[in-house]
Amino acid sequence: MRAAGFGLRPVLPWLVLTAGLILATLPAWRPLIFGTAPTRDDLLSLRCLSR
Length: 51
Prior knowledge:
The chain is an all-alpha fold. The protein has helices at 12-24, 26-34, 40-47.
């Protein structure tokens, strides 16, 4: 009989989704972590992507 355990396989999709969410929102929470006040240009760069 197989032992009931908690393997990595069911958790892996959640880890990938969590990593994607963190990387996608990095510009938004970076000023909060480093304690700098974002300027108007910084806030616009969050909203408007430069090409």
